[in-house]
Amino acid sequence: MSLTRRDLLALMPALGAGWGTVHTAAWAQADSVALGAGRVSLSPRGNAPVPRAPHRTEAMARRAAPTNQWYSTLIFSDKPEALHALPLTAKPTAAGLEVSLPKKAVVPTERRDVEIHYAHHDALLIAPTAFEPGRALLAGASDWAVDIAMGRGADRFDATVAHGSPYVWLRIGRGDLRVRLKSPAERLSSADPRALLLRVAGTPYALYGPTGVQWEQAAPTEWIARLPAGPGYLVAAALPDDSAATQALLLRHAYAAVTDTRVSWSVDRASGRVETVFTATTQALEGSETMPLLGLYPHHWHGNASVEGRLGPTYATLRGPMKLLADKRFTTTSRYTGFVPYWPAVPDSSPRVGDLREALKADVRNAHRMLQQGGEGPYWQGKGLLRLVKMLDVCEQQGDREGAERLLGLLKKRVEEWFSGTDRRRFFHWDQAMGTVVGYPEEYFAVVQMNDHHFHYGYWIRAIAEIGLRDPDWAARGRWGDMVDLLVKDIATTERGRADFPFLRTFDPYEGHSWASGIGLGEWGNNQESSSEALNAWTGLILWGEVTGDAALRDLGTWMLVTETEAVRHYWFDLHRIVFAPEYRNADVSMVFGGKYAHNTWWIDEPRQITGINLLPITTVSTYFASHPDYIRRNLASLKDEQKIWAERGKRFDPPDIWQDIFAKYGALADPEAALAGWDRWGAVEAGDSRSHTLHFLLSLVAMGAPDTSITADTTLYQVFRRPDGQRTYLAFNAGRQPLRVRFSDGRQLEVPPGRLARADGA
Known about the structure:
Blueprint: H1 5-11, E1 32-35, E2 38-41, H2 58-61, H3 73-76, E3 83-84, E4 89-93, E5 96-100, E6 104-108, E7 114-118, E8 124-128, E9 137-141, E10 145-149, E11 157-162, E12 167-172, E13 177-180, E14 186-188, E15 195-200, E16 203-208, E17 214-219, E18 222-226, E19 232-238, H4 244-253, E20 256-268, E21 273-284, E22 293-296, H5 298-301, E23 311-317, E24 320-326, E25 329-335, H6 353-365, H7 367-372, H8 378-397, H9 401-419, E26 427-431, E27 436-440, H10 453-470, H11 481-492, E28 507-508, E29 513-514, E30 527-528, H12 531-548, H13 551-571, E31 591-593, E32 596-598, H14 607-612, H15 629-648, H16 660-668, H17 672-678, H18 691-704, E33 706-707, E34 718-722, E35 728-733, E36 740-743, E37 749-752, E38 757-762
Helix pairs in contact: 6-18, 8-9, 8-10, 10-11, 10-12, 12-13, 16-17, 16-18, 17-18
């Protein structure tokens, strides 16, 4: 579908500051519009189109479709899967709404390990008695809660489901409500006649009605809530235990119905402190209690002094212990530990510097081929761009000006080929009806299932930002920067309720991490595999914010990077050993779902790729791994055991040292000397990296020492390293146009010229 000029002119103000002007030349091509020097297609040009999201109310259909969320199955599927809200699951069906408290299942695999499942099962089915429910529609979405409309015609039947809530709130326009069980239940005593307490398959559930509700048992597995005249509602809950204190607590707060949820963030650049505030708005269904119960995930409560002594009963969940807090608001704080775009030159006195020169010469010679390696769609092309940018770093720092100029020219040319919109095969398409940008040729169902946009565009945003550090005029808005802004808007729009793009498309503020599936396919809910590629995307936001002077975008990227890093530490690596089930045998999780976690990949169960997919791309920002060097050693040691099992199963992979560059760099963050000694210059290299960048990375850490994340600075782009002898190296980069004085938290100061990387060494 093409927009008219009038339509586009009406839309452009809504796109926000930083967008390029719609040029008159745009109308020369009916299916595209100019953004700066670039052009975005308004048509898929015969390619597979973006899917529609028909299951939304009229009000929600006026907003960009919220793809890649924990509830996205609602808007795409005629028969939506269960919503893994945690601690509860909820599933709209033709018969009504199912509500369940999942239990742990340990599932052995052919890999000789186990997966941990928390399936939606033994659910309560809640439905009207006066009419049949209609098809479920998304009727509202705030930052961690959704409203589901299941009415039919003029009859209302709605539900509110929220992350962390022990309740589901249901509202009905007329008649009574029926509760059906999978098996007969034991009724537990309750002092309050509004509450029906049942033990179903060992799990205590509670149903809370309005004053005057009459509970009638119609059959061994069926109860009827006879509702009084007036507003009809029912609150369904699962209890973590059936103690009197827990029953009283859940009853007290059940009628404080959540009506809105909102997250806000702030970054204190002077201290590196990143603060997140979670706020719930409620309405009392009856009585005066408006304080909700919020279920805090481990990354919310672990080490959080602000909630110590205030946490109540605990649910055993897929994400570990979820603890209840009676409050409308809570705060978490984290620390940003910095990165710089590249590391300085390796001195001629460093070991193997001759190997570095030779590797760099070969890589520059093969650079054009490296841009093509892997695939021709946005993912592999983005990886190719970052691959060459990291080679460019090495050329510049090691004094190869001719190589640097060649690489920079190749990079700009490739970006311009895509962004110009003149190639009928390689281009970006903006689908206005859904509010998204997709790239062709399609890779990994990024169009037809809306998958992985943050992975794909993160590479582009970061690579072009780093080109912009060298040539800000080329990357400026009004030239190629407008197209970068378009990709940023697709994955990181911060305004809620817009028609052009949804709020933080892939990011789940309450879970603290991203989701990769656009349509939420499958019974286990949404999922994310490559957490490290998500973090690479947020790195790109930080750098693009620095290049463009956009402090709000820079701080958004900082918040997302720090928040998702903390979630990864808990749910992918379990660094604090409070999340993984004791039966889980692996050191890491490679695939996190709404309802399970597993040690596998979407394409192969080979151990090196299973672990490596949550490490790559390893660049200067990957020093977040270094905060726990003992875990790096443990993870690499467990990988050897997994490879042994793989071989015992009769499995082989060629090359047997696949991604050895990734593991060498990962190990170097804990022990640089050992990693360098174990790296084979002629071994395998992952297609998003190069031998020269790998060797420069290793030699840099040997020279500077492992990253020291205990020291912060009052700027965005900085890093500190510490050698075994205690000597530190301080780095800072100035992306601005004025000199910068950087103050480190240990008292060291560093003067940084505009556009330069500065270094200081000392104790």
